[in-house]
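Fold it.
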Amino acid sequence: MSDKIPKPSDTMSHSAFTAAEAWHLFGIMSEFVEATERLSQIRPAVSVFGSSRIAAGHSYYALAERISQMLSDAGFSVISGGGPGIMEAANRGAHSGRSPSVGLNIELPREQFGNSYQDIALTFRHFFARKVMFVKFASAYVFLPGAFGTLNELSEVLNLIQTGKSARIPVILVHEPFWRGLLAWFRDRLVGEKLIDARSLDLIQVIDDPQAVVDAIFKHYEHRSFNPLPTERETLLKL
């Protein structure tokens, strides 16, 4: 068996692809640099997640807007995905409060479009760069009802905290009836089959009342600063 000798056209194609990959890496770096520079002054901040398909007038939308306004008035910047639905509700609530409303927008073939309630708006091409920014600047996470994207973010932040790649900060699920089945599955399957330790579920709080959400975050930081500790800063550099 002999190795295939590439034709000149194949060699040129490979070279062009390699060059494109190199430029692609510079694009990724630029997203990290721009986002870090623009978000460096927003702490303390809370990342809020939820469905893009919830319309204004829905009870979930109103809940997200109310929580975000209260967080904003309490001194927290509110970070959302910048799109419609609960993301819009979060930005809208924060925009009407006294702290910055931040949108981490993503370029998608469909569905995503930026809402008009962002004091700071960033647009990402790469999901993973955007995901880092949700974590890097957050003092807490608030999850309202959502689908695959919301569940992806939830599992990711739980995994980061569980593995020590992120500081242990509040992870709050809002609207217990929506999350009830998932939490039961966590207990029955993940804990029941010893795939996770039962203590891992202590990372999650389920809270329905907007004021109680704000109070739970303040309670977590009762004896420490909202700013990351030196060891936590080091950990964030290795996300």
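The domain at 9-236 is CATH 3.40.50.450 (Rossmann fold).
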